[in-house]
């Protein structure tokens, strides 16, 4: 996973609440610029809610007070870092513990996690190898699912409006379930059941740390617990079936089963990967296609690269890594969409950023959405321009932020490959077109999405 946790309103605030719940509060004062509490009990929570999301609140805060700012969550001081320069001073590239995993597990009421450094390194390596083996073993499956979607779109008249978010979520669910959990999910009814339970769990994760709303609603709590129990039951069954046996298809769970993990760790890790991969993959696919429909020149360049690499031949794993411009398109998609707008880390020892002392046990937010559109780092930050990633220094910055290279999370790495294959299949056969007059508004949550359905049309290249 990303070396930084990822959040936004409802989910974001709840996850911040989870950190504060897990660790004792620091009551030390700070000379860091920022705002005083609006309310004694809730701190600046009303300001965050009024801003629409934590990301939008941080944008305003950094614009007013600079790269290092502070605010109050309840009675707890929170520090936010909003430029690459100050993040460089705080990020430890040797960190292997995963805040996102820790937060998500706490919200799911899971207990395992943390561990000593050597164990964290081992589990990180296990995850990396798991993703590599899963993608290699299931490339043909991924290609098949992409071609099925292509055939569906080819069957539509050119005037047909296609609900992009809906189709990408369905595609991601099919891809993730079969590649993570196996061929039982070749059955569409199994995928639909998983998607329903996934949606219930994902929408409720974190609620209650702030307002206790889940615990106050017996119906919602029962629905959430039933959905989580059904997901866990499915995973337990698959884990039991895969233990001590050999299968022709290697799935992600196999890597966990073959690692030195106990049953509870396997269950939790497979749950986290399944939940997160579905959403990250769906949103990356959605935003990439959205930007291509509004960037004719970028789509033309991508088509030319795909044609040059594959010609009239099939999409193959041997050639997929040659799609350098496609990777730039995906990096620019993550940046422009601010796919994961905020991350967090607990200050485990007293530290210093710029001229400011950050006390031990302070929650430090990485305002990635602010950083990703900082004009001092990204010229013309609101322009969708994949060519900016030709610059090696830009790629190093992107890697530092956890979106590429050694700090890239397994779920994002998985999503990059799935989206690359999908775009290779779609763009070589179709022009992807926007719907005239459509304005796509952004909703900043755990992973950034559009507020409403995004519609596109397609036309055949040949």
Overall description:
The protein is α+β, with helices and mostly antiparallel strands and 462 residues long. The protein has one domain: Cytochrome p450 (Orthogonal Bundle), CATH 1.10.630.10. It is 54% helix and 9% strand. It has helices at residues 11-22, 45-51, 54-65, 84-90, 99-107, 117-137, 139-154, 164-181, 188-204, 213-216, 218-242, 252-258, 263-293, 296-310, 317-320, 324-337, 368-371, 392-400, 410-427; strands at residues 68-73, 76-81, 162-163, 343-346, 351-353, 356-358, 363-366, 430-434, 442-443, 449-450, 455-460. The strands form 4 sheets. A 4-stranded mixed beta sheet has the order 1-2-7-4, covered by helices on one side. Strands 3-11-8 form a 3-stranded antiparallel beta sheet. Strands 5-6 form a two-stranded antiparallel ribbon. Strand 1 (68-73) and strand 2 (76-81) form a beta hairpin. Helix 6 (117-137) runs parallel beside helix 19 (410-427).
